[in-house]
Amino acid sequence: MSKTRWLVVPVLLAGLVLLTPFIAHAQKPDFSGVWVLNVDKSDDMEQKVRDAAGSTREITKLNVQQLLTRLTHLARAAQEIEIEQSEADFKMFDRENNVRIYYIDGNKHVRETPWGEKLETLTSWSGNDLIISTEGKDLGKLREVYTYEDETLVYVLQLELKGFEKTVIVKNRYDRKGEQ
User: Fold this and answer.
1) What are the pLDDT digits (tens) for 65-111?
2) Which residues, listed in sequence order, are joined to residue 97 by a DSSP beta bridge?
3) Taking the model in full, what pTM does it have?
4) pLDDT tens, 117-152?
5) Where do the domains of the chain lie, and which CATH numbers do they carry?
6) Per-residue buried b or exposed e for 137-157, using 16+ beta carbons within 10 Å of the residue's own CB
7) Residue 114 gets which letter from DSSP?
8) 154 with 173: CB under 8 angstroms?
9) Do 69 and 114 form a contact (C-beta atoms < 8 A)?
10) Dihedral angle sign, alpha carbons of residues 95, 97, 115, 132
């Protein structure tokens, strides 16, 4: 083999190694845009919470009702959302001008709920899914997943609460505004 051929292989390998981070980054979905909840294709959150609470005596009806009130408030506000996404962060705006900012850097960040509770949140990619894991003293564990199925934005909420018989799992589907 000539010297030229021996040089081509290392040069090609070096180029591939240098381009790999850019290729990997380009494969991540961009959820940016305005999205409207498709009620017909989404779960009934209130029913899912009631089902997960079950009949345990460890929680009171007041706790379930307080949770339902808060989740219903958030769900109504999130019937239409706007997402701005960059390589570094994921911002979600809802109808009531609430904004949630998540830093996609693999580190835990403290954020505050509309009710003043402090939460620790870790945001990272798992394949094409954006995973947001949150823990709070009174909240329990919350896992949110944003992904695409066809042209639909899918949002899955998993909420583990003390005293509940099951994990609350709610799957919502959003259509891009103007494409319903």
Assistant:
1) 677 677 767 777 788 999 999 999 999 999 888 888 999 999 999 98
2) none
3) 0.76
4) 888 999 999 999 999 999 987 667 899 999 999 889
5) 31-176 (2.40.128.20)
6) eebbebbbbbbeeeebbbbbb
7) T
8) yes
9) no
10) positive
Q: Tokens in use for 133? A: 């894991």
List the 89-93 sheet strands across, edge first: 99-103, 89-93, 80-85, 33-37, 168-176, 152-160, 140-149, 129-136, 118-126, 108-112
Q: What does the chain come to in residues? A: 180
H helix or E strand, kind and range, residue 1: none
Any idea which residue has 């949110």 for tokens? 144
**Tokens linked to 127:** 């394949």
Tell me the sheet residues that pair with 172.
155
Tokens of 61: 């009806």
